[in-house]
Amino acid sequence: MRVILASKSPRRKELLSMITTDFEVIVSASDENVQEDLKPSEKVVEIAKQKAQDIFASQEGDVVVLGSDTIVVADNDEILGKPKDYDDAVRMLTTLSNKTHKVMTGVSIIYRKDGKVEESNFCDIADVHVKEISKEEIDKWLETGNAWDKAGAYAIQQEFAVHIDKLDGNYATVMGLPIHAVYDEFKRLKII
Amino acid sequence: MRVILASKSPRRKELLSMITTDFEVIVSASDENVQEDLKPSEKVVEIAKQKAQDIFASQEGDVVVLGSDTIVVADNDEILGKPKDYDDAVRMLTTLSNKTHKVMTGVSIIYRKDGKVEESNFCDIADVHVKEISKEEIDKWLETGNAWDKAGAYAIQQEFAVHIDKLDGNYATVMGLPIHAVYDEFKRLKII
Asked: Do the beta carbons of residue A85 and residue A129 sit within 8 Å?
């Protein structure tokens, strides 16, 4: 069975490697386009679906395509995507300081075997608490250059980890792919 | 300020690198020796203290020594250390299957500056839930060879991650060093 990861995120690649090392990475060039009135957890699944469907449509034969998207939802319900610039990153991290926020990762698995298509879409949510962080600590983190392609301007698995004291949920979900749930779906679909 | 990590664990080395890359690793050759009647959370701090004290005693001048130890406590209160052999690992993982267990990491920081000695000892605890795992899945994990130097015969950051659906606490604590708390102590002691 061909497995395609429809994401260029190195974290997702690393996480999927825990299940199988035999997969291709093909990334959609299409723009994401979601209805504005969806709830955050619906939005993130919709984007994951679009990423997966776009690649799936161009593939023939037996194949499974995995799409995923991650957002950070601050305690004021603001959705934090990737920061636009330095000031935007400072603003996001200041919003997260001394509070609990949600990380939502949407997953879409589309699967074709012997002409039969099956689809599984879901969202996994984790609560993350960030300690109080100073402007100096924010600057120090941003100087690492690791914040720019991350929702909420941070990565739980890098130097920013010293500012996170508590996680309630799945760590891989915060990294960008709930690998425990993908594993269960792959087992159910007999992909692994 | 010289920083010494009194542990040979590559995970602790990786985690401490998030705070500073300027540290030495010196490991105690002494055997651990703790009272049997201590609670698990006291035991793990006592072992961390012995590791740190043993190295600290042989150092002169301004220095900070960091000792740490990690245990897994199953829901029947059994303490799981490193597995003795294959059967022991299978037994441990079977005990953890479909249950929540505690991971306790004890930390001891001993610090000397201008002749003044300060010591900070604490334990950080995380709850980890392991999904139901089959004997086949246990065998597959053990085949990776990554289980042998780990308390409870698993590593949260490796292939075993697919079997863990939920963490309540700090991820780094489960890996072996609550880096968020070490960071706070290092800040308080003005080491960083």
From this structure: no
Domains and CATH numbers, chain A: 2-188 (3.90.950.10)
Contacts of B169 in chain A (CB under 8 A): 166-167
Phi and psi dihedrals of B161, rounded to 5?
A: -55, -30
Q: How many CB atoms lie within 10 A of CB B139?
A: 12
**B183 CB near a chain A CB, below 8 Å?**
yes
pLDDT tens sequence across A5-17: 999 999 999 999 9
How far apart CA A173 and CA B73 sit, in angstroms, is 25
- Whether the pTM exceeds 0.90: the reply is yes
Contacts of B144 in chain A (CB under 8 A): none
C-alpha separations of A119 from A48, A112, A122, A181 in Å: 12, 9, 10, 14
In chain A, the residue whose alpha carbon lies closest to the alpha carbon of B140 is: A19
